[in-house]
Amino acid sequence: MELSGAILVALTSLACWMLYLNRKGQRGKGRLPPGPTPLPLLGNLLQLDPKKMDRSLEKLSKQYGPVYTIHLGSLPCVVLCGYQAVKEALVDQGDAFSDRGDFPVFYRFTHGNGIAFSNGEKWKVLRRFALQTMKNFGLGKSSIEARIQEEAQCLVEEFRKTGGAPFNPLALVCRAVSNIICVVVFGRRFDYEDDDFLTLLHHFNDNFRLMSSVWGELYNIFPRLMDFLPGPHHQIFRNFERLHQFIAGRIRGHQKDLDPACPRDFIDCFLIRMEQEKHDPLSYFHMDSLVMTTHNLFFGGTETTSTTLRYSFLILMKYPEVAGEIGEGESQRGVASSFSRAPRELLGLASFPGVARATLGSVQLPPLGWHRQMATYLPACLPPGPLFSLSHTHQVSFSLLAAKVHEEIDRVIGRDRAPCLADRKDMPYTEAVLQEIQRFISLLPMGLPRAVTQDTPFREFLLPKGTNVIPLLSSVHYDPTQFKDPTSFNPNNFLDENHSFKSNDAFMPFAPGKRICLGAGLARMEIFLFLTTLLQRFSFQPLVTPAEIDLTPQCTGLGNVPPPFGFRVLAR
Ligand code: HEM
After folding, report:
1. How crowded is residue 553: how many other Cβ atoms within 10 Å of its Cβ?
2. For atom 15 of ligand 1, which residue has the closest CA?
3. pTM for the whole thing?
4. Cα–Cα distances in Å, from 16 out to 12, 23, 32?
5. Is 522 in the pocket of ligand 1 (CB under 6 A)?
6. 517 labelled binding-site residue
7. Structure confidence by residue, pLDDT tens digits, 490-540
8. What is the pLDDT of residues 33-74, one digit of tens each?
9. Ligand 1: which atom is nearest the Cα of residue 512?
10. What PANTHER family does the database record attribute to this sequence (predicted)?
11. CA of 201 relative to ligand 1 center, distance in Å
């Protein structure tokens, strides 16, 4: 009897709590969108898979619509799903949706200091300062372009040293990419074997992976509880501490030989501003914001771009027709025919005695063996569709409707000079491939959490000031109203019928609106220059067949982290 009484009390309290949480958004000055009913303390944890947070959230939107409320523990967050909802909020009401939302795993380290995790006036001042200073140190100018070109050549050299042996590109790519932001922030690049640099990059990698793991997600939902529970998430904070020490050490070094008349880098400029405002108690320029801002630029500028490049390698090997491993072929004797569908019909070429010579990219294939290579190669990598046209009475030419990156590099840039940013406008296919890669991988699938700066009417709801907002960027990239067949990799998403580059407003890997990624321009330059420079010199050879390449992220949380892989690079 006593037991059933206790159970009754517990159940009644539970029901009241659920009712309270569910109605909370409807009362007072706020009216949050409806969503799944939360449990006490757990919130909606049982409806979420912390290993695939983005997909769980997208799945719930099928039931609750494109704008709904989810409870992460006891914290209500408004989820925005699909292009229309994200655009209406982050673009059309850009100011109202420009605060940073709760992000406990970062907050324990930053305490709201630095650009990425501050809000209000402090964020505006720090962001303006960072943009201006980065511009002064060459961002958007030819000096940073030259720097990326040089670093890309260093990477080519390192790749060349592998001599065609298999290797994992993670460390090399990370060093090259990080060196670009190092020049802006620390005024110097690091040698690829520098021990401090390697340790630092290891901490970055480790943190991106851990924060994207289930442990990182659970920490964001239950920070206080997770502080007490053992687990690998504690490593995140140890790594942060070492990063803090490294950055603080560099800053001390700068303080020793700072010349206010001749700042060398971002840190010098910040130190000068600190000195100018040292008597202002309201100044945002102090040591903590310098360390955290440096960390934001360093982390943001390293992990994101290098992970995108690594994923690019994997995708180009998975879909080799994009990289251009299939090139033009021609017959010595005439063959009259016309094919509209590949690959089945193309395999028929193997039986055409007239086809005697073919190239893959710019590589001449063995005279008799090429069609056999095609025969093993095509079924694995080509999506069905009218990819090839075979025509002409005296010449068999098959070409991909979408041009190919290797071919475009050879035609527009050639082999005698390094790729430069001015080439971009003449390389619509490459541009389309790069954007399609960023769309397809949706590197930060949930962006970074936002919050509303004031009580904000949105659709039929009213979000109280400070409400957390999750813009589900991956749902925009996979929105079928914006991209045809979004789950397939298809550069045609960014090409028009004349094969010219076609932009799409639903392309938002850097998140849209007032808080758009501060390094978006730099990242796009780096991705283009690094990738074209590598593809100009090498073809990427997977260690397994394209069909066996698995693009599923190793973990999905803060970021989509690709599975570790090895490959060979062969000189072209
Ligand atoms: C492929 C590369 C990159 C991707 C996909 C990416 C993506 C993003 C995203 C989605 C955000 C969140 C924006 C929001 O608040 O909604 C962000 C913020 C940020 N990113 Fe990037 N990023 C990349 C490269 C970089 C680089 C190279 C830098 C370094 C200069 C950088 C620095 C930052 C900073 C400082 C913020 C915080 C901005 C703020 O809160 O005002 N990112 N990035």
Report:
1. 22
2. 515
3. 0.83
4. 6, 10, 19
5. yes
6. yes
7. 999 999 999 999 999 999 999 999 999 999 999 999 999 999 999 999 988
8. 999 999 988 899 899 988 888 999 999 999 999 999 999 988
9. 16
10. CYTOCHROME P450 508A4-RELATED, CYTOCHROME P450, FAMILY 2, SUBFAMILY T, POLYPEPTIDE 4
11. 18
